[in-house]
Prior knowledge:
The protein is of the alpha/beta class. It contains six helices and seven strands, in the order E-H-E-H-E-H-E-H-E-H-E-H-E. Strand 1, helix 1 (12-23) and strand 2 (27-32) form a beta-alpha-beta unit. It is globular and about 45 Å long. The mean pLDDT is 96. The structure holds NADP nicotinamide-adenine-dinucleotide phosphate.
Amino acid sequence: MKSVVISGGGSGLGKELGALLTxxxxxxxxxxxxxxxxxxxxEMIKKNGGEANYYVLDITSHIEVEKTVSEIVxxxxxxxxxxxxxxGHFGPFLEATNEExxxxxxxxxxxxxxxxxxxxxxxxxxSAGTILNIISTAGLRGKKNEALYVSSKFALRGFSESLQKExxxxxxxxVNAFMGGMDTPFWDKxxxxxxKSRMRTPKxxxxxxxxxLPVKDEIVIESKKKTSVC
Length: 230
Ligand SMILES: NC(=O)c1ccc[n+]([C@@H]2O[C@H](COP(=O)([O-])OP(=O)(O)OC[C@H]3O[C@@H](n4cnc5c(N)ncnc54)[C@H](OP(=O)(O)O)[C@@H]3O)[C@@H](O)[C@H]2O)c1
């Protein structure tokens, strides 16, 4: 059975991608820092007849990423890596702290790069593999009160687009997904969004991504409702 690795697979979009992919017969390996969320997501998949397991992993540590990935590749036949884990801090630029800046770049950019660097040699060896980078419409254009988050997503987009060119003509695919706001726990500690009911659900977005994944290298899912965030 082929496996998909999903960073941030314990909640929001990552959890929904895991649920849909395991419905189609793929085994899911969920990564994240909070074990309880990962256990719940794996249980949900198993209850629906799918197969999944998890690894507790903080992707901001390249040492931990390398260690975990080397364990994963010994046990599973990974064909898809979804760099989905991400954090956001919002508000006026001058009020942002250096800790917030670091957390966003270490997670959204460095963490995705560490995972990509660890899985690419396997994909090269297999002459097959897809890396799906969950970016955001914040990786397409600047937004008010999102300067640092947008910067991190532009960085991830630059990384990903460059790899697309580097691996052009290879059997390895790199796919970028740019979506607008989703109603997920991403917003739980933020007052940046006043009305989450105007957003798409993560399930809806996961479905749209997976429909386009086989045929598109750039997946753009704009907000259907009038909200300019994320
Ligand atoms: N929600 C939106 O409006 C929106 C819109 C466009 C794009 N996005 C992007 O979509 C992706 C998924 O976000 P979401 O909306 O589904 O929010 P979410 O439910 O908060 O999911 C983010 C996941 O990332 C994990 N994570 C965070 N830091 C991590 C770390 N250092 N190591 C490992 N895992 C980590 C979190 O789990 P732990 O905290 O347990 O580690 C969490 O499960 C993110 O990249 C986000 O930027 C979100």
